[in-house]
Specification:
This protein is α+β, with helices and mostly antiparallel strands. The chain has six helices and eleven strands. It has a five-stranded mixed β-sheet with strand order 3-10-11-6-7, with no helix packed on it. A four-stranded antiparallel β-sheet has the order 4-9-8-5. A two-stranded antiparallel ribbon has the order 1-2.
Length: about 170
């Protein structure tokens, strides 16, 4: 009987603080040491922890209370750790690199399952995930937030559904 070991991978930043040979020989100031510029890449590393198995009755991995800024702007702030642990670990490295390193917007689909019997699908050019300068992430979904009539201090839940490759959203009343 063979023992089968399943490994999971997760995304992490790898920083390069060393100047290239051309930078060293060219006499350019080492900006890595001064901290003004350093290179980073997104790498996949083997995770020592198993994948998180979702509880089918409460799969909401990201739970948060909305604030006034999020309501006014239509942008849900998802922390760096939550994004890396619960969203990007399920994306392929090209998509994660496109978002985290290049800083581009990634269009996503959001299923609003607040009303379980009548879930609503939200997609379009105005629904996307993007990195912020503070390295948190924002999920922009103004139309959905207005339709749902969300207010400050509303409790919401999010998770990335790996079977459909989209976000599931729920407002807890």
């Amino acid at each position: 009987m063979a023992l089968i070991t399943y490994h999971t991978v997760r995304k992490s930043y790898c920083y390069n603080f060393y100047p290239s040979r051309a930078e060293e020989e060219g006499g350019a100031p080492n900006t890595a040491i001064t901290g003004s510029h350093y290179k980073r890449t997104l790498v996949e590393i083997r995770d020592v922890h198993p994948l998180i198995i979702l509880n089918p009755h409460s799969p909401w991995q990201v739970k948060k209370t909305l604030n006034h800024y999020e309501i006014a702007s239509g942008k849900i702030i998802v922390s760096f750790n939550d994004t890396f642990n619960y969203i990007l670990r399920y994306w392929n490295s090209c998509m994660a690199d496109y978002l985290a390193i290049s800083g581009y917007k990634i269009g996503v689909i959001i299923w609003d399952v607040t009303n379980v019997k009548n879930p609503r699908k939200h997609k379009g050019k105005d629904i996307y995930l993007q990195i912020t300068p503070s390295e948190n992430y924002i999920l922009t979904c103004m139309r959905m937030m207005r339709e749902r009539n969300l207010k400050a201090d509303d409790e919401i839940g999010l998770y990335w559904d790996t079977t459909t490759s989209c976000f599931n959203f729920k407002c807890f009343y």
